[in-house]
Amino acid sequence: STVDREKVCPFLLRVFCKRGNHHRIEDFTINRQPVEDEVQVYTWKDASLRELASLLAEVDPKYAKHGTTLSFKAVYLDSIRARYNSKDLGVINVSKPSKTDDVTLDDNRFIIGDFIDVAI
């Protein structure tokens, strides 16, 4: 679904980026996240993975380096098990079109308050 960005306020998205691979799910607890790798961006639920990559590049140009591949996961609280879990969202290459460029947070039932984990 499309968000009216003129009327809907963006939300703070906490993104955790790591070179080489994703963070271990054990790195995420109620009281602790891997904040040394945290990037904060403001966005909407209809943001695509390509748009998130652009937001990361605005914060730090290393995310836009030619040929860079970004693998996105949602990290969410599994309230039944009282621990965090993750779900693959997609992989994009910043230099060329990817199959998952247009996949949005909303397509993946992202809930405000969830995190995004990015392997670079």
From TrEMBL:
Tell me where the signal peptide lies. Answer: none
Q: Which Pfam families match?
A: SAP18
Q: Which domain of life is it from?
A: Eukaryota
InterPro entries linked to this entry: SAP18, SAP18_sf
> What GO CC terms are in its UniProt record?
nucleus
Q: Which residues cross the membrane?
A: none
Q: Which family does it belong to?
A: Belongs to the SAP18 family.
Record PANTHER family: HISTONE DEACETYLASE COMPLEX SUBUNIT SAP18, SAP18
| This protein's name | Sin3 associated polypeptide p18
Top-level taxonomy:
Eukaryota, Fungi, Fungi incertae sedis, Chytridiomycota, Chytridiomycota incertae sedis
